[in-house]
Amino acid sequence: MSVPATARNRTNLRLYLLSAVFVLWCSAICFRLVYLQIFRYGSFQQRAQHQQQRTEEVSARRGIIYDRQGHELAMSINVDSVFAVPTEMPNPASTISLVARITKQDPRELLAKCEGSKTFCWVARKPDPEISARIRSLNLRGIYFQKESKRYYPKNDLAAQVLGYVGMDDAGLSGIEREYEEDLHGRPGQMLISVDARKKWFGSVEKQPEPGRNVVLTIDEKIQYIAERELATAIQETHAIAGTVVVENPRTGEILALANQPTFNPNLSREITPDKLKNHAVSDVYEPGSTFKLVTISGALEEKVTRPDEMFDCQMGSIVFNGMRIRDSRPHGLLTVSDVLAESSDVGSIKIGLRLGDDRFYKYIRGFGFGQQTGIELPGETRGLTKPVSRWSKVSIAAISMGQEIGITPLQLVGLISTMANDGIYVAPRIVAGTTQPQSAPQMIAFHSVNEHRVISSMTAAEMRQMMQAVVLHGTGTKARLIGYSSAGKTGTAQKVDPATHAYSHTKYVASFAGFAPVNNPSVTIAVVLDSAVGLHQGGQVSAPVFTRIAQQVLEYLHTPHDLEIPASRQTLLASAKTPEKDLEEGSPDHPGEEIEAADASSSSADPALPSDRGRNVSTNMPDGRGARPSTNDGGVIPAAMREPARLESESRAAEPVAPAAHSAETQPTPNGTVVLEVEQGGITVPSFAGKSVRSAIELAESSGLDLDVIGSGRGQEQNPPAGAHVPSGARIIVKFGR
User: Fold this and answer.
1) How many structural domains does the chain have?
2) What is the pLDDT of residue 644?
3) Has residue 628 been placed in a domain?
4) What is the pTM (predicted TM-score) of this model?
5) Which candidate in 37, 581, 678, 726 could, as Cys together with 683 as Cys, close a disulfide (CB 3.0–4.6 Å)?
6) Residue 162: closest CA among 24, 65, 90
7) Which are the contacts of 30, defined by CB distance < 8 A and separation ≥ 6?
8) Which of 563, 594, 617 is at the close of a domain?
9) Are residues 234 and 206 in the same domain?
10) 29-35: long-range pairs with CB below 8 Å, 24+
């Protein structure tokens, strides 16, 4: 009995031990499961999401930039961006090589980029439509397309320095695009990309992007076109290395046009170089020369130390000041103050400046806005170069009286001239009228001028206007005469500092003319500055004619009433305005003061170079004269001027469509009896743009692989070539828009 009992006890013990081990094993598994499922749940969930999901930012549609008439100058359109999911590619190296061959990228860099990310890799961001179409035609596995917003400038290089451009991430890099980046950019959305167990990709938009606000500028695209065209012509004729034109409303400070040369096309960002990004109007600092005599003489008149008819002995064009001889460009004897300005006598200006005195002179320098920023809404503005009276040398007042030893910008020059035109009240220039919400309903923008103050009295301003008119009638600015309008202004010619010798150059000059019209009720102020013209280089010789061409067209476009009788013969007026070139010379060859430092005031200012085919591009992009009516496009802006603008003759020629090539739709016998057979036409079939908005037409052209030239605004009315015609890829289609 004892043996079986002992065996049974041993068996029970083994069962107990086995049960205990089993219970412990089960408990360990349960504890492990609890640990993994509860305590480590968050960690494993994050690891799974990291392997299976990825969140990509979806760009928001940038706000539209309008001109004062509601015409789009910068807008965003949808294009196809190309990305890859490397885990779905059967042969990543081969696939990437094919894509890189089309996009012209380094295949090794692109492959390395994709290998670093298993679930998502951009291979072509916002490419041209033909590139994305070629990639799509390959039907590559693991290659997908995502709609993105791309910045588009329908007028190409029009106002390029004002608008600026954006980078690949839609961030503004220069101009208004940069200055108003926070308003224009909007808020980006989010796209969730997931990969399942079979490596299949699918995505969804988690958060919709919010579009940016629209920006309305004070410039008028037609006036801007006129200024750019005439400046380009002047650069070509004078071989100047750079130039700028500023057109302003003297009453409100609104900039109607701001043109620069060289310039660039913001649509072609890869062709933009640093030297093309400079906005000369706000960042170039130069000695103004004789244009600064306006400050000298107006200050003296305001302080009543002289009067317009007082005679000054100009000593036959030579004066010795503090041991230094200063000479006029030609001899002058007795001159009134008015003639001192008209003939641009440096000797007379120095004598007037000495009467004014250092402290009072400096007060007017600051009063006219020199030595400080204007506050215009453009990046890279400089204050210019001025010195306080405490740092003036013994000859500084003589040098500054004739426009030396001080540095200004073209924008500050416009402010000076506008003050004379605006009864002595300085109004700070502005180029942005306001911002609007991204909505389709038309919105009214009310422009309010800021930072205005009186510098000289109304009487002094009236005397200055009369003397500035004399400059045009019988002084150094006779080439600034207009047909049917009175004009006033001042010429300026200043030698540049040679950076190699740090002395004044005898071959490089800055020629300028700034004026306004009509004299008694000024509508526009215009400043023209040309840098280093070859051959004729005086302001009255090269800059004044540019003022004339621009002012004549702008005044007619604005329907400004004529204040002078129009001569029966244009030749009669031209003959009366003909002046020997030597009589337009000005500026002293002597430099009593210190030369200003060669200043490139802004390293961040953005602006560009004129392409060789600019004349063709500008003419085809010239908006139709009827396009000045209120725009009803998405986010439209009620125009600042509701009247119908006059259609310019040059504008009419620019807007004329090219006659389409005739395509016979039927078989026709030729005179010699040969039968011409109809052959199936290849290429792209031109779609119909009738009734489409500008944005819709641009997107349709992009998707069709065509280049669209926009004329006017509103809805599509006419097009050339017509709908249904066959054209090669990338062909230019001209579409007229209107109401």
Assistant:
1) 4
2) 35
3) no
4) 0.72
5) 726
6) 65
7) none
8) 617
9) no
10) none
Angle at 48 between CA 45 and CA 52, to 5 degrees: 140
Q: Which residues contact 606 (CB under 8 A, 6 or more apart)?
A: 161, 164, 165, 173, 174, 175, 178, 277, 278, 279, 379, 380
| Dist. CA 476–CA 270, nearest whole Å | 44
SS3 breakdown of the chain: % helix, strand, coil, rounded to 5? 35, 20, 40
CA distance 499 to 53: 58
Q: Same domain for 391 and 279?
A: yes
- At 59-109, the pLDDT tens digits run 678 899 999 998 999 998 878 788 888 777 888 788 888 888 888 888 788
CA–CA separation, 393 and 389 (whole Å): 9
- Give 387's contacts (C-beta < 8 A, 6+ positions apart): 396, 405, 406
In this structure, are 211 and 241 located in the same domain? no
Round to whole Å and give the CA distance between 691 and 709.
16
In a domain, 673, yes or no: yes
Beta strand pairing call for 707-712 and 732-738 = parallel
Q: Could you tell me if 234 and 168 are in contact, meaning their C-beta atoms sit under 8 angstroms apart? A: no
Tell me if 479 sits within 8 A of 540, measured CB to CB. Answer: yes
Residue 68 parent element (H or E): none
- For residue 687, what are the domain limits? 655-738
Amino acid identity at 495: Q
> Is pLDDT of 617 > 60?
no
CB neighbour burial string for 448-459, b if at least 16 within 10 angstroms, e if fewer: eeeeeeebbeee
The Cα–Cα gap between 258 and 22 comes to 88
Is pLDDT of 619 > 60?
no
| DSSP result, 40-61 | SHHHHHHHHHHHHEEEEEEPPP
| Higher pLDDT among residues 263 and 645, named by residue | 263
Q: What is the pLDDT of residue 54?
A: 62
Q: Measure the CA–CA gap between 41 and 56, rounded to whole angstroms.
A: 25
